[in-house]
Amino acid sequence: MARRRTSDADADDLPRFFVWVRGLDGPEPQKWMTMDFGVGDWKRPLVLAFLELPEGERHLPLSALARRYPPPRVDVS
User: Fold this and answer.
1) Where are the domains of the chain?
2) Which superkingdom does the taxonomy of this entry point to (predicted)?
3) How far apart are CA 53 and CA 48, in angstroms?
4) Does pTM top 0.85 for this prediction?
5) How far apart, in Å, are the Cα atoms of 71 and each of 9, 46, 54, 59?
6) Which residues make Cβ contacts (< 8 Å) with residue 67, sequence separation at least 6?
7) How many C-alpha atoms does 21 have within 13 Å on its Cβ side?
């Protein structure tokens, strides 16, 4: 199967940030387009850690990024 070469326009459409957020069962990985925290900063308390992804890693699935960048330690108390 031939791989499709990504253009510069395609790279701009990929999420730029890998983010660990506070989930119901512990940290959950997500990919975000921007680090806009929204109206009233409602997202800020949910963000545990974030990383701006290099262009070569933006296409990777969440599972691969989660293995490469493990979740931060979260105090359960």
Assistant:
1) 13-38+45-68
2) Bacteria
3) 16
4) no
5) 30, 13, 18, 19
6) none
7) 17
